[in-house]
Fold this protein.
Amino acid sequence: MSGLPLKLQLRYTPRKPGVYLMKNVDDEVLYVGKASNLKVRLSSYFSSSPTRDPKIRRMMSDLTSFEYIVTASAAEA
């Protein structure tokens, strides 16, 4: 699914706990995070906010793909 546009890929992201990896064009990992609900957490990166942290803005400007690993629970993530 990584070949899909990010917004479309996000549409298919499950509402389950897991770990996510944000990557750049060179497939380098920019950030690793965990979430109790992957879809909600990843969606939060794509919403615009004037108070967004500059580090997050920079990461999002470099972001070309993301991956996730679904886990059995938030604690496992």
The chain has a mean pLDDT of 90.
